[in-house]
Amino acid sequence: MEEAAKDIIVRYETLLKEMWSESAKYLGTLSTNLLVERVVWELSQEYPAVRLLKYGPEGISCAPMQVNEEKSFNDLEEMFMRFVTRYVSILAKLLGHERAEEIRKKIITEFGGAC
Amino acid sequence: MVRLVTGIKNLDHILEGGIPAYSINIVSGAPGSGKTILVQNIIFNCARQGVKTLYLTTISESQFKMVRNLEKFRFFQDELLGDKIVYDDLGMILRTQGASQALQYLGDLVKKYLPNIVVIDSIKVIRDLFPDEKNFRMFLFDLAATLSVWEITSFLIGEYEEQELTRLSEFAIADGIFHLYGQEEKRFQKRYMRILKMRGTNYQQGEHLFQISSNGIEVYPRMKPEGEELHYEIKHGRKKFGIPGLDEMLGGGLREGTITLVSGATGSGKTLLALKFLIEGASRGEQGVFVSFEESARQLQNTASQLGWDISNFLHSGQLDIRFISPVELDVDKHAFEIMEMIKEKSVERFVIDSISSFENSVSDLKKYKDYLWAIGQVLRKQHVTAIFTSVNENLFSSLVVSKSQISLIADNIIFLRYVEDRAGIRKVLGVLKARGSNHDKDLREYEITSSGINILGKLDKPDMLR
Questions:
Q1: Can you tell me the ipTM of this complex?
Q2: Quick one: pLDDT at residue B401?
Q3: CA-to-CA distance for B290 and B272, rounded, in angstroms?
């Protein structure tokens, strides 16, 4: 796997973890994981690597992705972006746009503007 | 807020626009209370708008019967089945493989069909499959989470008794609860709906009548007088009867926007007096509506012609509208609502209910009857409609009882008609008991009904005839 791809995975893992824990405050872990499951399912046809995301009661992890050698830098970047966009858009419907926006801003602040 | 518009007559009005999207709604009631039809009506209405439903039954045989029973309703549309409405069974997998497999199966179906609505019919059957409350509660919790995350508005149908509604765990997870039940009134088997809970939106509380016909479900919202003080502009104009003596007694006619109770014994001429009031308005270009529970439009037209009043042109032009509701068919819950809607929709200036006694006789709950009249009265006043309610006084020779049930309290004006004995004959007298804002005539006056109309005669000169 390219070094750049590894960097992306590490960077987005931080973002996803933050997103997961912020969502869990409002939705609970069960619903948060169901939401991740939904987005994974929706993107899996286009980006099979998204199935490698690991999630459960303890949170979300990209660790299994790091051993996958097929993914290119561009694919990963696009996949994560699509994942985050879709995740936040559903979250907005579930929690209301105001609260979803708060979560999004918080993530941006902590992640340094990557989403 | 995103809402699911049910398309059910008046239900969206009660819910201030519809059911909040992604909510979990329990539809409860005894067998035959209309739960399944209500939900089916909603999903077919939604399907026509492109909304997709996954309908999960818990006893597979019932799917066939259910679809067959639906065919008689106008909302049913064959071509929506399989495309916008998908039926499947959840009961078998629950019974044979347990709750977690059932949830997995539900998840797979959701991924396959991506429905906007999921119906489970019945959640009560699922409850009975669980050995204990704890496991059922966990199943419900997981179910609720799954449905929410997939942005699904759900209906969980169940045969619950009213006393169960606050006790069982399914009602804690529900965002909305619709409870349907029946009640015997004097003549009809009535169906009512109460919304016991609806998170995220205001809704009209109390029991709402609903009917099931080939049109599907039609809801008639509960009518109640508004709690707040009624503010309305007081008009100073007068609305005449076109009966010179009577208009003089009233100080120039009825004050615009007031309610008048015309009370009298049978045959005393209440209906004619009220009809004359509308004819006079029609001749002045004012729209009038006569709601009759006693005589049909044709009967009234014949009666009017015997007094030299030709109302056919007014009826033809729509200036005068006579709505006859047979007292046998009179259903106050429904018709009171329809009357109010009619007053709001049409620019009515003069309005008659003949008689409120028929209204009263058709309802077993006196409180409800009073509420309905108050509510109608409020609408009339807000719309500045000048109205007459006739009321039957069962005691032919007594003027003391104006109306039963203190309904006279809603009237701004009271005109009473009564008989008096005079030697071997009977004469008719009329009096104005009350005329708000008018220095009205306090005398009793004799009147006659002839082929040329109603004539007010002189003062009653023999007070001893009054008993």
A1: 0.76
A2: 54
A3: 11
Mutation pick from A20, A29, A38 vs chain B, by most beta carbons of B within 10 Å, is A38
Q: Does B64 lie at the interface with A, CB-CB under 8 angstroms?
A: no
> What average pLDDT does range B208-231 have in this prediction?
80
B2, closest residue in chain A (CA to CA): A93
A108 min Cα distance to partner chain B (Å):
23
- Cα separation, A26 vs A45, in Å, equals 29
Residue that is written with structure tokens 């047979």 in the block: B326
- CB interface of B with A, residues 115-144, below 8 Å: 141-142
Partners of residue B148 in chain A, C-beta under 8 Å: 31, 94
Task: With cut-offs at 50, 70 and 90, classify the pLDDT of residue A115.
Answer: very low
CA distance B262 to B19: 44
CB atoms within 10 A of CB B230: 11
Q: Is the pLDDT of residue B99 over 80?
A: yes
pLDDT on residue B190: 83
Report whether B279 contacts B320 (CB < 8 A).
yes
Give per-residue burial for B374-401: e unless 16+ CB within 10 Å, then b: bbbbbbbbbbbbbbbbbbbbeeeeebee
The answer to whether B133 and B67 are in contact (CB under 8 A) is: no
Q: Are B55 and B119 in contact (CB under 8 A)?
A: yes
Please tell me the distance in Å from A27's CA to the nearest CA on chain B.
9
3-state secondary structure chain B: CCEECCCCECHHHHCCCCEECCCEEEEEECCCCCHHHHHHHHHHHHHHCCCCEEEEECCCHHHHHHHHHHCCCCCCCHHHECCCEEEEECHHHHHHHCHHHHHHHHHHHHHHHCCCEEEEECHHHHHHHCCCHHHHHHHHHHHHHHHHHCCCEEEEEECCCHHHCCCCCHHHHCCEEEEEEEEECCCCEEEEEEEEEECCCCCCCCEEEEEEECCEEEEECCCCCCCCCCCCCCCCCEECCCCHHHHHHCCCCEECCCEEEEEECCCCCHHHHHHHHHHHHHHCCCCEEEEECCCCHHHHHHHHHHCCCCCHHHHHHCCEEEEECCCCCCCHHHHHHHHHHHHHHCCCCEEEEECHHHHHHCCCCHHHHHHHHHHHHHHHHHCCCEEEEEEECCCCCCCCCCCHHHHHHHCCEEEEEEEEEECCEEEEEEEEEEECCCCCCCCCEEEEEECCEEEEEEECCCHHHCC
What's the confidence (pLDDT) of residue A95? 82
Confidence check: pLDDT of B396 > 70: no
Strand order, beta sheet including B453-459 = B320-324, B288-292, B350-354, B386-392, B259-264, B413-422, B425-435, B445-450, B453-459
- What CA–CA distance (Å, rounded) separates B434 from B131? 70
Are the C-beta atoms of residues B147 and B109 closer than 8 Å to each other?
no
Q: CB–CB of B149 and A28 under 8 A? A: no
